[in-house]
Amino acid sequence: MSENLVTIRDLVIETAAGTELVHGVSLDVPRGTAVGIVGESGSGKSLTCRAILGSLDEGVGIRSGSVTFGDTDLTSLSSREWRLLWGAEIGSVFQDPASYLNPSIRVGAQLEESLRFVGGLGKRDARLRALGLLHSVGLRNPERVSRQRVSELSGGMLQRILIAIAISNNPQLLIADEPTTALDVTVQAEVLDVLRELRENRGLTMVFVSHDLAVVAQVCDYVYVFREGVVVEEGPTREVFAAPSHPYTAELVTHAREFGHTPADEPLQEAS
Question: I need a surface site. Which of 109, 111, 205, 249 has the fewest CB within 10 A?
Answer without folding.
Answer: 109
